[in-house]
Amino acid sequence: MLKDAQGLEVTTDSKETIAAIDCFIEQALSYGKDAEACILRAIAADPSCALIHAYAAAHYLCQENATAWKQATPHLQTAQQHLAKITKRERLYIQAIAAWASGAIDWAIALHETLAQDFPTDLISVQQGQYHYFYLGDKERLLKIAEKVLAANQENHYLYGMLAFGLEQCHRLREAEAMARMATTLNRHDPWAHHAIAHVMETQGRVDEGIAWMETHADTWQNCNSMLYTHNWWHVALYYLERGDEEKVLTLYDTHVWGRAEKESPKDQVGAIALLLRLELRGADVGGRWQQLSGYLFPRLHEHALPFQDLHYIYALARAGRSEWLLEMQISMHKYATTVNPYLRGNWAVVTIPAARGMIAHAKGDWLEAIAQLKPVLPLLHKIGGSHAQRALFEQVYLDALLQSEKHSRVHCTIA
Asked: Which of 47, 110, 168, 193 could make an S-S bridge to 161, C-beta 3.0–4.6 Å?
């Protein structure tokens, strides 16, 4: 039995596997693009190592698409075959990933909390706990799980980045910026810390500072996976949008957001959709970009990985005029809302379904229906996850519907 870079025991006698696990840990915490390669090296060195199979399953699950979920299944099955022969920490982690795969998010969270308590240097587990809290809109616990392990990770800049994001989501902006700057001082190549400061400066309206901060660090994002690479540039684009420079935003969309995206990636698709919608809300002409992007959304129709994401997909389908796909997805969402794990069912039935109707109505120019559907759910939208910056889009859509409705009323009165 050997120890990984976190000082935690791993049930393997292969030094090559430990080296590859350490590689995976670094890649996962830095949102690197080579995480899968590290996993495959570790498995090749010791195919019986249960933990690396659990890491593989988690890696594929967080891709949030059906193909990757299928890739996760055999790894999870292999990991579970070794439960009796491994450490308590490995067993808890495997059980947490199995709970995630089955949709039992409440149980997965409980296990990640136990791991944080008993094995506080296991930052991979903390990161995944934060992931679940993020998509439940539970900002307080997103912060607390990172705070719980601070004493054991005083020199770890990745934890400072996790804390910074949690602090920002809890509106503790000064502390968030200080923590993120500490992370970046320790390691300039910490893209999650850069991201936390982007949120802070955007919230505070520090547009020029935000652009300077992000563009100064943008050279360090070349080794990021496409999700964080495109998402950090998405934040840069939001700053230029605030400046009113729609042409610059379209250029960033074409070069650094959708232009550099993994076109089949749900996260990358959502970022691109959100940026196009924001551009149109500012009156920009986005040309044929809706049609081009929406062509990649067919695999999303029945996945329903996250309600937050589904609201983006259905808007894009409606805006691109893909009515058959849109109807198919609407029917599928309604069915899913009745069968999903009870812990999540209310978020789907009470929040997501009416919000979806509102988003579709806006995309089709039915302003009164958009207002009627979105208004009651706006105070509840935090329950479907996403950051403040991301969820602000839904309020902007609602406000635009109000504005457009008033314009049409005035025109009608003038004509009458």
From this structure: 193
